[in-house]
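Hi everyone,

Forwarding the result from last night's run.
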Amino acid sequence: MNSKPCRLLQLDVLRGLAVFGILLVNVWAFAWGSLSLRYGTLAPDAPWLDRAAIFFVAAFAELKFYPIFAFLFGAGFALQTRSLKRQLGTWPAAQAAYQRRLRWLLVFGLLHGFLIWSGDVLASYAVAGMLILPLAAARLSRVRNRAWLVAGGFLLFICLLYPFGARVSPQAIAEELQTFANRYATYTQGGLAAVASLRARDYAMQLLYAIVMLPHIIALFLLGILAVRFGWLVQPQRHRQLWRWVLLVGLVVGLPFNLLSASATLWQTLSPYQTLLNEPLFGVLLFIGGPLLAAGYVAALMLAGPFMLQWLGSWLAPVGRMALTNYLLQSFIGTWLLQGPGLGWAARLSPAGMLGLTVLIMAGQVVLSRYWLRYFRQGPFEALWRSLARLPSAYKPN
């Protein structure tokens, strides 16, 4: 393995885990777009394997790995800006170099969103990174206070945004289902021009949604910065008691909620007109419950023993070291396999088949990442990103 220090191995494993967890959720949107019903609908007599596939993704992946990915971006921000400061000598020089890095990430994200897949997160991460860049040299107390302020404000906003007591009429549900069916037909059977037009409209809407989500992303970034500067991530052995508490909360609070939320999602998929379980309300509360279980995943890895960490590292660390390349490659592969301009498999695959395809893509990326890193220090998009940003030759991203 090339990730020699234990702390770097843990970060690479987490990145690899996050990349694969995001694919578990994104694969559905590759087929139907990022603004449609995520899992579509199932017939009441759908096979149990299809039900299990949707329940598994909703319970253990949806809104769990996106927070981990954002958290790790914040951790990388802290490590990389300090590395640049050591090499360039001053914080202004380090911030200018990192600003170039973020600008090119924004370019990658916009191209990805408009040309490949409308669910891109890179542009949002770039903008969020630019907004927190002045905090690179800030005192811990300022970063901590800003994290509390942004997180609290976002949760209050989400609660105020939800129309408590409102009921969706059967007619509105029917219209939504028809819209979904039309979009599904376009993405899975449409030609190149039709899919490109719908994707561009979807991404324009996604950018507006990203503005609403920026506080959530920034809060996770700031938490990642704090995790590095307090040593929680880089010296986990010194904070085992903290990670035990995080794991306990994730299992006792996060896991039951996510199981209940997944049940509501599955029921809504099987019976779109049901009103007993308020699935939209669970969707709002998932912004709390999802990250809690995600924190449990992180804690479990931080508490893993050396043998388990090395075993996980042999499979996941190469994927994590090429996180940008693998994230973009998933979009290329997924849209080509599932959408109409490519092979259009989404029109024929069941939910269980979609999950099986996801596992095959993961396995392929493990093999590809391990092979690539035998001969190169970075993934191809990581190397391009570094070259375009004109980073110092001695710069080593963490």
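Confidence is low (pLDDT under 50) at residues 1-7.

Cheers,
N.
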